[in-house]
Amino acid sequence: MQQDARNEGKTLLSVRDLEVSYGGTPVLDKVSFDLKQGERVAIVGQSGSGKSTVVGAILGLLSGAGRITHGSILLNGEDLAEASQEELRGIRGKKIGLVPQDPMSNLNPSMKVGAQIADALASNGMRGRAAIKQRAVELMTEAGIPDAERRYNQYPHEFSGGMRQRVLIAISLAGEPDLLIADEPTSALDVTVQRQILNHLQTLVDARGTSLLFVTHDLGLAGDRTDRIIVMAEGRIVESGTPWEVLLNPQEDYTRRLVAAAPSASLSADPASDPPAPERDRPAPVLSVRNLAKEFKLRGQRGRRIQAVDDVSFDVHGGTTTAVVGESGSGKSTVARIILGLETPTSGSALIKGESIATSNPQTRRALRRIAQPVFQDPYGSLDPTFSIERLIDEPLRIFNVGTRDSRRERVAELLDQVALPRTVAQRRPHELSGGQRQRVAIARALALEPELLILDEAVSALDVLVQEQILTLLEDLQDRLGLTYLFITHDLAVVRQIAHNVVVMKTGKVVETGSVDQVFLAPSADYTKELLGAIPGAAFAS
Amino acid sequence: MIRYLSTRLWHSAITLALASVVIFIGIRQLPGDPAIAMAGEEASPEQLDAIRSKLGLDQPLPVQYFSFIGRLLQGDLGKSTRTGTPVTDLLAGTLPVTLWLAAYAIVVAVVAGVLLGVVAERYRGRWPEWISNGFALIGLSVPSFWLGLLAILYLAVNLGWFPASGYVDVGTNPVRGLYYLTLPALILGTGLAAVILRQTRASMIETMSTDYVRTARAKGLGGGRILFRYGLRNSLIVVVTIVGLQLGGLISGAVVTERIFALPGFGKLTLDSVFTRDYPVIQAVVLVITVGYILINLAVDILYSVINPRIRVGSN
């Protein structure tokens, strides 16, 4: 009903045959869509699909050499594609507000938060220092920042990620715009924070009757939050329709793949692809974490300590996958670092096949490091850009003096086969590969020494859904073939469902809940787990 | 902030104490003998011994060092072995000249460097950038004594805009004093200006492409406000660090510049004292330079924390 009422509104934004190129390379191909007053529309696509370019074109803020080469962008009948920078300045902030993607990088670090909101108010023609401050505090309060009067005088680094995003929302609404563009506004935030912020944003937008253009890579999120979804790929609009149409009955092949791959939208994983239930009678666990604790001293704050990991215990059995789930600051990565021997525990132990990296002698430690190998989150940062792929994968073999030069070369080729990369990439360098390919290289490198345990720390979090899906499939496949054991550290519950057998849920350093995937997902006992599960977007379309 | 300052001051004191030992020993390792320098090559061994015992040079090094420190703490830096003038008087006469010169040069360098740096960023790929890049190239590659000679030849002798040499005390006659210092300050500041220019330009290019500048544009802010409040302010964090590292170079630069323009400054005093092995003066001069370095570093650290609020809070 509500949706019908919205669709009857008059057209606010009309994009017609929009084409944008970067230095002669076209990146948008005849993009056309309308946005009615009060309507909420999502643009969904993977990185490189052109969704952010659409935003840049509308605001006249294309980066670098980006130029609109064709088409029109009509906002209330005024063509933004033809507008001068001066005219656009009058439109930005006042008629179109932007909530940008990364709350960490979008606030001026050397300027008080209040002043940055005041700036937006002043540029919208508001005068009078006291009036501006009062309005800014109001906006902060509306955006859900407690104690706004005091926090007005704080700097961005004194705010958490979620709070910074609220500041950015306050800024975007300062000019009471008709259209709000939210460009991946919460992709850098934890799910529970994401939900709070989106709920809040929605309340604000609804109360003002503002139209919303919501740009995201997350189909589930788009389905939850908007009236209409536009799916983009390679600079074109592939499909558009209501969330029900797009998510439950996708017409185009690309959309179908996207829906299938989106873990959040396919929560009710079909039993066939469900991981096999682990057998009961099995040997000692590969990894045994017992009463693990880690305390950090806070620098410059005499005596203050933070309990990063607090009495954590769990077992991981051979050939299974255990996921450690938690939001930022839950201590999950510290656990991984302790297991890998990169950090020493304050108390407790993490035993790999009965021995601890932290306390064993150098020889055993070397052996344990061969058994347990890490794969990290950032496939860009964890590969030395000056090394060839062959050298990267070969490195652990060289460190452990395995085989001859020729046998190592053969092994690298084998490993490339295993992670489904063509052997020809061996002579290339990391920057020539895509994110997914790089993560495959990282996995190949981890497999080089034939480890038994892989510690995957947010190993798929930086990847697009389709790529993420491929990597997860690869991991499952490798587990089946090589009998690998995984410790899968992630903040993404939806991915857990897909890959893990057992789950350990962590919050502020403590284990909140453990159990098999089915137990935890279907009958969660801890409130925090329920909250996490409830915050996964797209649940409505899962059944 | 107060705790941060006191820690910094304490560190500075330790540095200074260590530096005084190094200076003291270092100078005595220099080839040459002050007694010979005073009495001349023809002096008899007895005469030299007499001079050495008068100057206390026959005492063991530790004794000499502690008596030096003891007198230093009382504000007594000894007397020039060459002229007999108290070293404090020599410093009082020459230091202000150099301080005025250095301060003037810094102002020139910062104003010109930052301004041209911003211009270079603003007009990338157009003629203002080429001019500013050309200036940077000259400032970095042409030695200051050569620039100084050219400046004297053209600006002072041919055009007669500035005096070619001479000094008027800025304290007693600020206008004339600064007028006399303008050419030396320009020459001394050129190298620093070029470094600041390049740093500002590079840093501005980076800052202006950050997300928060884009967000500021999306707010509808005007170009000037974005340029200064969002761009320059954050760029200066990097610039200040670099400038701090470069300031020390001003002292050695001042020695050359003072020589060219015949300024009765600290640089001249330094050179003269080294040539005559005037231990008390060299000691004092090097000590003053060390204190200068330490103070500059302290000032840069404080300035840095003022510009960058993240550091300020982190140190509390």
From TrEMBL, chain A:
Entry's transmembrane regions: none
Q: Write down the Pfam families for this protein, in alphabetical order.
A: ABC_tran
Query: Lineage from the top down?
Result: Bacteria, Bacillati, Actinomycetota, Actinomycetes, Micrococcales
Protein's name according to its UniProt entry:
ABC transporter ATP-binding protein
Q: Extract the ranges annotated as region (Disordered).
A: 265-284
Instruction: Alphabetically list the UniProt keywords.
Output: ATP-binding, Nucleotide-binding, Transport
The segment(s) forming the ABC transporter domain are 13-259, 287-533
Single GO molecular-function term? ATP binding
State the family it belongs to.
Belongs to the ABC transporter superfamily.
Q: Per its UniProt record, what Gene3D superfamilies does this chain match?
A: P-loop containing nucleotide triphosphate hydrolases
UniProtKB/TrEMBL annotation, chain B:
Please state the protein's primary subcellular location: membrane
Which parts of the chain span the membrane according to its record? 9-27, 97-118, 130-157, 177-197, 235-261, 281-307
Keywords, sorted A to Z: Cell membrane, Membrane, Transmembrane, Transmembrane helix, Transport
Record's subcellular location: Cell membrane
> Which PROSITE patterns does the record match to this protein?
ABC_TM1
* Protein name as it appears in the record: Peptide ABC transporter
Family named by the database record = Belongs to the binding-protein-dependent transport system permease family.
Q: Which organism is it from?
A: Arthrobacter liuii
Membrane topology, from the record: Multi-pass membrane protein
InterPro entries, from UniProt?
A: BPD_transp_1_N, MetI-like, MetI-like_sf
Please state every residue range assigned to the domain named ABC transmembrane type-1. 95-300
Record-linked SUPFAM superfamilies:
MetI-like
* CDD domains attached to this UniProt entry: TM_PBP2
Enumerate the Pfam families for this protein.
BPD_transp_1, BPD_transp_1_N
